[in-house]
Amino acid sequence: MPSLSLIIPARSEQWLSATVEDALAKMRGETEIIVVLDGTQADPSLRQDPRVNVIQHHESVGQRAAINEAARLSSATHLMKCDAHCAFAEGFDVALMSSCESDWIVVPRMYNLHVFNWACPCGHQMYQGATPALCPICKGVGPFQQVLVWQPRWHKRTDFARFDGELHFQYWGAFGERPEAQTDLAPTMSLIGAAFCLQREYFWALGGCDEGHGGWGQQGTEMACKTWLSGGTLIVNKQTWFAHLFRTQDGFAFPWGFSGTAQGRARAYSRRLWIESEWPGATRPLRWLVDHFWPVPGW
User: Fold this and answer.
1) What is residue 215's predicted lDDT score, i.e. its pLDDT?
2) 100, 153, 190, 260, 296 from 196: Cα distances, Å
3) CA 200 and chain centroid, separation
4) Nearest to 196 by CA among 237, 231, 255, 246
5) Alpha carbon distance 18, 20 (integer Å)
6) Which of 44, 121, 177, 239 is 20 to 30 A (C-alpha) from 61?
7) Distance CA 245, CA 84 (A)
């Protein structure tokens, strides 16, 4: 029986195989990996391993539904959701489980992930992004090849997050200067949603991932509000980490189709749940959470 199910929803993810291999190399507990291929194949393919279970959907069901499906198949005591373009600290699974109480969500501290460089035939390498048009050294036009780096950018670290009065995610580096943020297990108002760990029974006590939002969007705000407002706690474990590829720069496409209209619907649904207090599991109002972390920029 696994102790942790690492759930990786994936759709057209170039770095899925590298993510799975890194997790397998860094796991130190009784951990399994459940990959949900949401409407696409794994390319490159995943090697067979008894610790890796793959669910294949020929039509996309959306990220939230994929996470819920994997959680229903799990028999582990703990769940961890992670994006399909991440690297991990050694023993990340044991560290997260050991710090995860029954009504907590625990997130590892986060670094940006340097996945690859573009290599010119002249030998010069350029940082990941869109295919270069020109080598700045030899002025050649390629062909350029991707060279795997797969290392955290140690100067790009995130521990704390929040959301503003419109429930939009915001980084909150300044919170790290507060006295309550100095411990290895420190509270955070919100999370980015790329990686989090909790007990499986608690995941379902919170209602799983609410598919009323649509397939994607507002997941960090959802999990943060569900935890804090039901009487639980959201914690950053600084003793472990993961590194995450951010695809906001040129050259990276977002795999789940998500229009501005769909994003607006997800945010409107989120505001109904938390600002208008429509989530039935809440024992505290949203005002309590803002006061708990006061002062909070954007409020």
Assistant:
1) 74
2) 10, 20, 11, 26, 23
3) 17
4) 237
5) 6
6) 44
7) 9
Kind plus residue range of the DSSP H or E element containing 109 = strand 104-119
Please indicate, yes or no, whether the overall pTM of this predicted structure exceeds 0.85. Answer: yes
As a whole number, the mean pLDDT across the chain is 94
Instruction: Measure the CA–CA gap between 172 and 162, rounded to whole angstroms.
Output: 6
Provide the angle, in degrees to the nearest 10, between the axes of the packed helices 260-274 and 219-229: 10
Q: 39: phi > 0 → left, psi -120 to 50 → alpha, else beta; which? A: left
Q: How far apart are CA 162 and CA 158, in angstroms?
A: 12
Cβ neighbours of 123 (radius 10 Å):
9
Enter the tokens of residue 249: 């720069």
Contact partners, residue 166, CB within 8 Å, separation at least 6: 267, 271, 298
The DSSP annotation for 124-141 comes to: -EEESSSPPSS-TTT---
Cross-strand partners of 234: 105
Rounded Cα gap, residues 216 and 211, in angstroms: 8
The H helix count followed by the E strand count for the chain is: 7, 13
Show the tokens assigned to 192.
């980015």
Spatial separation of the C-alpha atoms in residues 26 and 31, rounded to whole Å: 10
| Helix, strand, coil percentages for the chain (3-state, nearest 5) | 25, 30, 45
pLDDT in tens, 185-227: 999 999 999 999 999 999 999 999 999 888 778 899 999 999 9
Nearest C-alpha neighbor of 40 from the set 297, 256, 270: 256
Of 107, 116, 114, the C-alpha closest to 158 is 107
